[in-house]
Amino acid sequence: MLLLFPFVHCFNDFTSEPLDVLRDLAFESLIHHRPRTGALYKANLPANLAGMEVSVIRLRSKTLWGRGANFSNIHIPMKTLPVPYVRRIFIVYQDFGNWSSYYYKVPGFSLVSSVVAFMAFDASNVTSNSVTKLSLNTPGKPIEIRFPNLTFPETVSRRKRCVRFSASRVVFLGEASTRNVCYSGNQGYFAIIDPMKRKERVRDWWVKGVVLGFVGLAVVCVIGMILFKVVTAKRIHEMEREADESVGLETVWIGNSKMPSAAVTRTHPVLENASLT
């Protein structure tokens, strides 16, 4: 039974479908060559995509039906046909490499393999601005996605699972085989994942709690400063009002300040001994 989960999927500075950009780079590698059927061509990627791998292969549909296909750790079984049917197809393969965990995340799980993907396209006119995306119909055996050169501790080997990423969810395909092979009835993005340890989950919640605590403290400080200013201004206003009501003194402005003012009165001198007058 397939399980569906939401997942975080971002691809900075690219389109909503990462393969759209990488597909164009793969097709560019064919423009400078006369592509031979069955030959795998590796795309030249810019420096900001270092660590990824993109390649493309052209196949005849009748060959795919009669023999299947084997390329870049992908095995497509016999009796597979493109939908809608075309005479020739391109299959673009990509490996996200060390960028996998940056672009693809599954809550509660960690990636233990790189994310790999393959998609089929109509090969009628590779120079066209719009290339038709195809589906693959595999009525027989499923497609194999191999993850070679992966070694896991025994505890991880028992928990590892295969997943397929789509635009808005994660499909759990089941447990990965002992040979690190995942099986799927369709094309897409694939990886092997492992449930995160409890300590890692506690650490994540602890980090989130610290961040929320700092944000809450900052909000409280801002509110406290605003209340302090409001109370101080109110007290000053009350003191000024009481002073105005108790003594009727004239006021004068000195610069930008309002100061109380009273008429000047000189006290007349009085002699202590009146006989001296």
What's this entry about, in short?
This protein is α+β, with helices and mostly antiparallel strands and about 280 residues long. The chain has helices spanning about 20-30, 60-65, 100-105, 155-160, 200-245; strands spanning about 5, 10, 40, 55-60, 70, 75, 80-85, 90-95, 105, 110, 115-120, 135, 145, 160-165, 170-175, 180-185, 190-195, 250-255, 255-260. It folds into 2 domains: about 5-195, Chondroitinase Ac, Chain A, domain 3 (Sandwich); about 200-255.
Could you characterize the architecture of this molecule?
- It comes from Actinidia rufa.
- One of its GO terms (cellular component) is membrane.
- This is Transmembrane protein, putative.
- Keywords: Membrane, Transmembrane, Transmembrane helix.
- InterPro entries: DUF1191.
- By secondary structure, the protein is an alpha+beta fold.
- It folds into two domains: 3-196, Sandwich (Chondroitinase Ac, Chain A, domain 3); 201-253.
- Helices cover 29% and strands 31% of the residues.
- It has five helices and 19 strands.
- The chain has helices spanning 18-31, 61-67, 100-103, 154-159, 198-246; strands at residues 3-5, 8-9, 40-42, 53-60, 69-71, 74-76, 81-83, 88-95, 104-105, 109-111, 116-122, 133-137, 143-146, 161-165, 170-175, 181-184, 188-195, 250-254, 257-261.
- The strands form four sheets. Strands 1, 3, 4, 7, 8, 10, 11, 12, 14, 15 and 17 form an eleven-stranded antiparallel β-sheet that branches. Strands 5-6-13-16 form a four-stranded antiparallel β-sheet. Strands 2-9 form a two-stranded antiparallel sheet.
- The longest helix is centred in the C-terminal third of the chain and has 49 residues, at 198-246.
- Mean pLDDT is 77; it is low at 1-16.
